[in-house]
Amino acid sequence: MYFNWDELERMTGEFNRTPQEDFDGFTPEEMHAILYDPFGASCPIHINTSIDVQWLETSPMYNLIRHLLDLLRQEGELSLTKIGNLRRNVVRELYKEQYLPQEDIESGITKLSSENDWKALRSAKLALEFSGIVRKYREKLVPVKKRDSLLDPENSVDMFIRFFRVFTTEFNWAYNDRYPSETAGQEGFLYLLYLLRNYGKTERDLSFYSGRYFQAFPDLQIPERDQYGPYSKSEQVIRTRFFRRFTEWFGFSTMRRTGEAEHYLLQRIKIKHTAFLRELIHLRNS
Q1: Higher pLDDT, 122 or 7
Q2: What's this model's pTM, rounded to 2 decimal places?
Q3: 285 with 274: CB under 8 angstroms?
C-alpha cells in the first residue's frame, strides 16, 4: 500500500495554520509559540517591554521589589539570617507599606516573624535571585555586579521586565501551594493573560477563564475526588495560583468575592482586568 507522505505533511501544515475554536481563534502554530516562546518574536501575543514606568507604579509587586532594591542600593548589602532570610526589621518595614497584605497575617492567625510567613515577599526574593539581579553571599544579600545598574530607578522598566520573565517562566508557582498539579495555571500563563486582557473589561466569573483555559489544555485538569465550595479543584488552582498569586500581586486584575459565606473558598469570584494589563500585553498585529 502506497502512503503519500507529502500529502500528510501538507494536511498537517494546513491544520497547524488553521484557527481553532478551542484555542480562542489561535492556530496550533501560534499556541505552540504562546506556550514555549512567550517572549519571542514568533509569539502572537506581544509583551510591551517599553512600558512607561507610571504603569509599573500601579503594580503592588513592582512597588514591593522596588522598595527592597532601593534598600539594597542605599546600603550596598542587606544582612541575612543564618538560613538566608531577610532580617525581621526589613520584612516588617516592607510589610507596613501594605503593598501586598496577606489575609492570615492581617487577621492575626499568622505572626509575621520572617519572610517565610509572607508568600509575596518570599516569592519576590526568590525570583530576584533567579533573575540574577541579586544573590546571597556570606549571609548577605548583594547586587550582582554585571546587573547592578538594574537597581537604579531609571532602569526600573528593564528590571521589572526581567523579573516578570523569570517569575513566569523559572519560578515555580506550585512552590506556594499543595495542589497535586505542578503546572496548571502557570503553563500557558500568557494565554490566560490574553483571555483576561481580551474579555476582562467587564466582570466575569472565575469559571469563564478556567473553562476556556482547560478547554485549550484538558490534560492539565486535576482528577476530581471531592469538591469544596462552588469551584472544582482545577478551578481552585487557577483562582489561587494564577489570579490571587500572580495577576493580583502584579496588578493585572481586580477580584471581587460574592456570596454570604465567610470563608473565601466558599465564595464565588468575579474578575476584571486593569489598565496596566491593557498597556502591557496586546496582540502583535493589532
Answers
A1: 122
A2: 0.93
A3: no
